[in-house]
Design brief:
Elements lengths: L1 H31 L5 H8 L5 H17 L9 H5 L2 H6 L7 H12 L4 H11 L14 E5 L4 E5 L4 E4 L2 E4 L6
Antiparallel strand pairs: 1-2, 3-4
């Protein structure tokens, strides 16, 4: 019985060590990529990952399209159903940068909102024409009834001929 408890405890400690290593790598990545990849640095620093990361990225895509005055050809229906921020991000009306920051501030806070928006735009290399962009680790699978999102780590995508590789260590 005592041996089983020790094995269980060792497994728990190994799991905790692995989690702490990933945390350290994430924090190192957030500092290392602050200038080149400001949006990913923010995600790492704020510990935003998984579904929340995907939702924030999709919200920023909608906001960027509105900033350019473009219509939203496809909306993440499942996310827009119960999320007023996502509904507003995917409205078809143009928006100003001030409105974009105010909307984003309701999700990430007023201090981080300008940095997150400008970091996303810079990192996505969006200059004047915004197009639908999914980060290299996020793929969207579109069905007729709803969007389903999955994380595919370690993949590479191209946007406008530019390869977007996610730095290792950013979770």
């Amino acid at each position: 019985m005592e041996e089983e408890k020790l094995k269980t405890r060792i497994d728990q400690l190994e799991s905790e060590v692995t989690r702490l290593k990933e945390l350290v790598m994430t924090l190192v990545g957030s500092v290392q990529y602050r200038n080149d990849k400001p949006y990913w640095a923010y995600l790492a620093q704020s510990m935003t990952y998984g579904e929340k990361e995907t939702e924030l990225s999709l919200m920023l895509i909608g906001i960027c399209r509105r900033l350019e005055g473009e219509e939203q050809p496809i909306k993440p229906k499942r996310l827009c159903e119960n999320n007023s921020y996502m509904q507003e991000a995917y409205s078809n009306e143009p928006m100003t940068e001030k409105e974009a920051i105010e909307l984003l501030a309701q999700v990430v806070g007023p201090v981080d909102a300008p940095e997150v928006l400008h970091g996303f735009i810079k990192q996505s290399q969006i200059k004047s024409n915004v197009s639908v962009l999914f980060r290299s680790d996020v793929r969207a699978v579109l069905s007729f009834s709803e969007w389903q999102f999955c994380v595919a780590r370690g993949t590479c995508a191209t946007v406008g001929g530019t390869a977007l590789n996610r730095p290792r260590g950013l979770c």
